[in-house]
Design goal:
Strands 4-3-2-1-6-7-5 form a 7-stranded mixed beta sheet. The protein contains 4 helices and 7 strands. Helices cover 34% and strands 33% of the residues.
Length: 153
């Protein structure tokens, strides 16, 4: 009887902790991703913002004195947004430093992921192609979404 009570208590505790993590991911209001290269010609900064309202905003900006900026928007289904959120561990993301390595040193490029959670924004910038383990799967999916805007003119 004692083991049954202990088992039930452990299951309840596990469910509580699991629901807290899901609720935290539900509070993700926006996910951003971008790349930049300081020493390039053309559109050197590209970024996407996936917003809970069902849209993806893409912006690309050229280097120079009068930089050209182009913006495109696409719709994203709620289930796709939820799939992205499922790739996020907010607690692990919040533990990461704001800058990892030496992004865009010697024009190696920079990548970043930002999140707006409960009204607070955090951005983690790292060397291009070198996402930290906690962000690798999310970075791959966000890069795929960004690359889907190749026709944005």
């Amino acid at each position: 009887m004692k083991t049954r009570s202990l088992t039930i208590c452990l299951i309840i505790i596990a469910l509580i902790f699991n629901s807290c993590r899901k609720d935290k991911n539900r509070n993700i209001e926006e996910i951003g991703y971008g790349t930049s290269f300081g020493m390039c010609v053309g559109y050197c900064l590209n970024q996407v913002a996936i917003i809970n309202n069902g849209s993806i905003d893409f912006t690309k900006r050229a280097n120079g004195i009068n930089p050209s900026v182009k913006t495109c928007t696409k719709a994203i289904a709620e289930n796709e947004i939820n799939a992205l959120k499922a790739l996020v561990n907010v607690a692990e993301f919040n533990k990461l430093p704001e800058i990892i390595g030496c992004p865009d040193c010697a024009d190696g490029g920079a990548e970043w992921i930002s999140m707006k959670v409960d009204g607070k924004v955090k951005k983690v910038t790292y060397e291009y192609g070198k996402a930290p383990d906690a962000l690798k799967n999310l970075a791959l999916k966000l890069k795929e979404i960004k690359d889907g805007f190749a026709d944005c003119n």
